[in-house]
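User: quick one
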Amino acid sequence: MIVETSGLRKVYGSTAVLDGIDLAVREGEVVALLGPNGAGKTTTIRVLSTLTRPDGGSARVAGHDVVREADEVRAAISLTGQYSAVDAEQTGRENLVMAGRLMHLGRRGAVRRADELLERFDLVDAGPRRVRTYSGGMRRRLDLAMSLVAAPRVIFLDEPTTGLDPTSRTTMWDAITELVRGGTTILLTTQYLEEADRLADRIVLIDRGKVAAAGTADALKAQVGGERVVLRFPDAHALSRATGLIGGDGAVAAPERLELGVASDGTAEHLHRLLDQLRAAAVPVARVSSHRPTLDDVFIALTAHPADAPVPA
Amino acid sequence: MTTTASTPTTVPPLRPASVRHGGVTNAISDAMTLIGRSIRLTRRNADTMVMSVVLPLLMMAMFVFVFGGAISTGTEYINYVVPGIIILCTGYGASSTAMSVADDMTSGMIDRLRSLPIRSSAVLVGHVTASVARNAVATAIVVLAAVGMGFRPNATFGEWLLFGGLVLLYVLGLTWLAAAFGAVSKSVESAGLFGFVMLFVPYLSSAFVPTDTMPAFLRPLSEHQPITPVIETVRGLLTGTPIDRGGAALAWTVGVLVVAFVVAVRLYRSRTSR
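Assistant: Done. Structure below.
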């Protein structure tokens, strides 16, 4: 395990921001920490990148303890935080060379590395310009490039695409996907389910400082139920007849929408059977749609608190 | 914008194992890198540069040509006031370090720097050194401009050296103080308050008028505040007035330097390791 935490705790005042987080990330894996604002995602990343001292539990990154062997951890990781961490009054190239020098690549090594990264992140033309003149997407790409100066074994990305327009977000995703192909271990936080779904091998849902659920996107979706076929009828009479015919186990009728939801295995065969049964009984059907649970469903089901909002069925 | 996606180049491997961190050589190279950074940032921050040179020049011109005629100090007023202007100029110049440090602390930069395998004080060393370099340039400009306005120092070479040394200690001390202030400031704007303090405090000293012309309740404060012995020593070194409080000047500057250094590094560490 390249990242391993056990019972990680962090308390601010009387609030336990981290209340016993257990994580295990294998080398080469991409894991997304997903959760609402204030769930403890950023604090987890800050502890793992040696910026915040935990109050309890332990955390090891690349085989080193984040508290006792902070320097060894720092040599193996890189962090791209939520806020842009580049100097606006330096050029992109100067920022990268500086980062290389501070990672002890030597003057020549730092310059060479800076030029490679500018090319790699499509910033060659912008390289000699001050960062102040960059767009948000360019700044974020430079930020990521800064993190890659020393070929880190683990990269921490704290909300890498927050505040980016859709085009820049896609570009950023492509850049991250490519890193993954190179075998880098990535631990990222996000509030966007789509982002977790697209980038991560495994998702860890964090809520109120605890791990609420963990697994692949598919496994999490399966947790809130499988696929459903939703049939809509022209009138209440048709709905009630259909409910009598096919409304067995797991079917849910929604009379106000004239809809009937039926559990399905997602095959065409099952759909055929349903429609054949209804046609044989001359029950008219207005529309058919199929519904796969999204991460949104998972997110809402697992993180909504009785006090805040009712858990949807 | 999609080049990144279409170029199949992966990041060229660079074995982290081949890089060594820690050690004195790296510490020196880190400090040099961050000094270079701070100097570049300062040079490009036109406001700071202009303010730290133009403001003292304007104040000097105002005191010499506007108020000077009405102030009686027993000597040519310009010879009296220039040492005060130099101290005001360097104090104010040093204060911008509070803003540079606060800028790092309140942006994401500090997290980036803190997650690197470098000494945490290297960042402050960078800011402080840049401030000293900037103030050396500003002081030289102010002294030259003063000579142009009629300032006639009679210092020997040795006295110039002592002057340089004392001003250097003073700037270093105030810069570390500014760094400490910047390290605890919630925003760059509030860090800017330090500049106001440094702009105002010299008025309650012997910088512009002899302290014995002040009302009795102010006199103890203005005579014993740290800036007064420093100004009087500078005045003595440059224009030959008696130096009776050179020891106090030295004690104050060294004292402020040591205390401010320790406090700044402590505050910086505790602020960044929550």
